Amino acid sequence: MGLNAYFAYTVVGSNGSGQVPYEVALTAIFIEGFIFFGLAVLGLRQWLARAIPRCIKLATSVGIGLFLTLIGLTYAEGIGLIMGGTSVPIQLAGCRQEQIVNGECPSAVKMRSPMMWVGIFCGGVFTVMLMMYRVKGAIIAGILLVSIISWPRTTPVTYFPYTPVGDSNFDFFRKVVDFHPIQNVLNVQRWDIGDYGGQFGLALITFLYVDILDCTGTLYSMAHYANLVDPVTQDFEGSTMAYMVDSLTISIGAVFGTPPVTAFVESGAGIGEGGKTGLTAMATGLCFFISIFFAPIFASIPPWATGCVLVLVGSMMVHAVTEINWRYMGDSVPAFVTIAIMPFTYSIADGLIAGVCLYILINSLVWVIEKASGGRLVPPNKDLKEPWTWRTEGGIMPPWMTRLASGKKDFWRAAHPNPSVSDAEGVAEKIEGKTTGSDHDAAMATGRGEKAT
């Protein structure tokens, strides 16, 4: 929610009291999406992602897990076990929201919220037991169970109490299927930005770098969680296309009047259920479209039905902490700072910035001291440091740009493994199965070399 909060409270402000009107802010987001797209096509975003040290990438996955856990434990989107305190930053809660006095739960009613206990046992423990026995759809079953328990109005855990707000929500819930015409679409941008030049540029740059870091951290942590990251290249298949799609959705979303539409950490719930391909995302998108017409039902799922699910997903993402290099402080301290900053600042980007900056500072100082002392002052266990380089296999630019720069006409095609054979000839050989003796010997030799390697 970091970008949404920045958009609403800083850029636009309460009743338009912020830096620029919301139409101008949406114009900045629209332009930012296409800048993103250009960076993705040129391969610069992928290079940036690969240049981030491995320990920071692993820490990002862990930090996002703790971030999800914090969300699941709060009132807004979870079971309400913790809340912001007045004398301390975070404190134990567990009371009903209407019982909160001066920003705190009175001691007499702490841990007395029936909604919290229903969420813990029916949405948490029940879901864990189903997952332990490998029951498909365990997460959905837990959410449905808590929701069904919370819908009747006569129970102490009802989502529709007899209050003006509860009555309004229940009236909407009873519609089951509803349709509202969307108005003022495609007319929400404002291009006369002359009066807002500096503020417009500030908003554009902020959205740009936060989106880069948020999306990079989310995509690579989700790919690592799904075990799809190549250990050699530290990349995942289709990363360029994923970045390009993310970029275009930002601009498309701005046309419809929304803050940046990007990849979010809730994808971990789908991965936890076994969804690891694009087909999962397509099916989810189709279900989202259908859910538009069943908005009264989906809008009536209480937060304590999903809170423990977020905690559960967080627990599954934290396992990456064991892969962090804790033996060398140049890797471990920046990783730990990344893990800690993400949940406590409620921002993936802030945690990533803190970790990367501290990594650069610590390891640069070690390098400077080593050079200045002629190699005599070196940390005793520096040999335990994980290797890092800004260089990536094949260079910064994507392979298709390298082929285009070399004058290759069909630059969109990957080069044939045998340089002496053109792409078309290679395909023909593969289809027809015609291989000369010399080519066969070369292929066998190449195969033996690859096997030995």
UniProtKB/TrEMBL annotation:
Q: Which GO terms describe its biological process?
A: adenine transport; guanine transport
Q: Name one GO molecular function term.
A: purine nucleobase transmembrane transporter activity
Domain of life per record: Eukaryota
> Which GO CC annotations does the UniProt entry carry?
endomembrane system; plasma membrane
What are the alphabetically sorted keywords of the record?
Membrane, Transmembrane, Transmembrane helix, Transport
How this chain sits in the membrane, per its record, is: Multi-pass membrane protein
Report biased composition (Basic and acidic residues) as residue ranges: 427-453
Say yes or no: keyword Transferase present. no
Any single Pfam family the record assigns to this protein: Xan_ur_permease
Q: Where in the cell is it found?
A: Endomembrane system
Q: Mind telling me which residue stretches traverse the membrane in this protein?
A: 24-44, 56-76, 115-133, 200-223, 243-265, 277-298, 304-321, 352-369
Stretches for region Disordered: 417-453
- From the Swiss-Prot or TrEMBL record, give the protein name: Uncharacterized protein
